[in-house]
Amino acid sequence: MIETRITRALGIRHPVFQGGMAWAGTARLAAAVSEAGGLGIIGAGAMPPDLLRREIQKVRSLTPKPFGVNLYYLSPFFSGVLEVILEERVPVVTTGAGNPGKEIERFKKAGTRVFPVVSSVALAKRLERIGVDGLIAEGMEAGGHIGEIGTIALVPEVAEAVAIPVLAAGGIADGRGLAAALSLGAEGVQLGTRFLCSRECEAHENYKEAVLKARDRSTVVTGTSTGHPVRVIENRLAKKFLELERGGAGKDELEKLGEDSLRKAVCEGDTDWGSLMAGQSSGLIREIKSCQEIIESIVAEAENILRKLPENIV
């Protein structure tokens, strides 16, 4: 059993967070991850407040264990979603695409612990100063919105720069990744793509199949010209997006092309014109497993590696 400050603080068995995946991070998936000993996360990025409340209540009906909600600062429903999180006293919030500084005191009063996603040391230090409980250092190997620094460089730099617990994310899908993250100074990991390919994830089977078929060079980064790069599996949409970017297309034209594309992929299974957000760890995923199987195998593999590490070095 791997115990860290994160497992002790949150009352979870394993130092494994599920990524807050919009459309795919439903109550069913979050509850399954929490039941398996990790921390399940409802992806509230595209949810209106009333739906989020129902999802929170559904998680609580499925498991008594801790869970979280991913608060996406660019959501059109941000204000309402924030109020629901506070009213429901959600145990943990992970945040993305924004600074939770203005909300920290309200989160503390509600008993909610805050773990923002960061992609730089400067941001990590700034968020530690405002009182967040921990950080998720996410490297550019991750799927979806990404920064510019790789996981193996970012994690130790962030862990060294702050005193609060750090989780590693980006390109992690198995026990080797967990062991590496712990060796780099992280106290846990966040997995998105790996849980996308779980039995309990309600993403369309076409989307899951695209991830299973992906290899090491199957993903590309789109949106660099807009300042909001996104890693996806290459398909017709991604190729068109990159073509327009190379041709100097404006932000409005690019945003129109990508409009509603994630929902099309996750909910409708459109693998041509849907946004197949997935990380470079896709090349390590070969089968659909339950969340219980995923977490147990990852932790067991990491424990085995860490036990043998001194022997291997010698």
Summarize the structure.
This protein is an alpha/beta fold.
Give the tags:
11 strands, globular, eight-stranded parallel sheet, three-stranded antiparallel sheet, alpha/beta, 14 helices, 314 residues, 14% strand
Describe the structure.
This protein is α/β, with parallel strands linked by helices and 314 residues long. Helix content is 44%, strand content 14%. It contains 14 helices and eleven strands. It has helices at residues 5-10, 27-35, 49-62, 78-87, 104-110, 121-130, 151-161, 175-183, 193-196, 205-213, 236-246, 251-258, 261-268, 291-313, and strands at residues 16-18, 40-43, 67-72, 92-96, 113-118, 135-138, 144-145, 166-169, 189-191, 219-222, 230-233. The strands form two sheets. The chain has an eight-stranded parallel beta sheet with strand order 1-9-8-6-5-4-3-2. It has a three-stranded antiparallel beta sheet with strand order 7-11-10, with helices on one face. The mean pLDDT is 96.
Q: In terms of topology, how is this protein built?
A:
Blueprint: H1 5-10, E1 16-18, H2 27-35, E2 40-43, H3 49-62, E3 67-72, H4 78-87, E4 92-96, H5 104-110, E5 113-118, H6 121-130, E6 135-138, E7 144-145, H7 151-161, E8 166-169, H8 175-183, E9 189-191, H9 193-196, H10 205-213, E10 219-222, E11 230-233, H11 236-246, H12 251-258, H13 261-268, H14 291-313
Parallel strand pairs: 1-9, 2-3, 3-4, 4-5, 5-6, 6-8, 8-9
Antiparallel strand pairs: 7-11, 10-11
Helix pairs in contact: 2-3, 3-4, 8-14
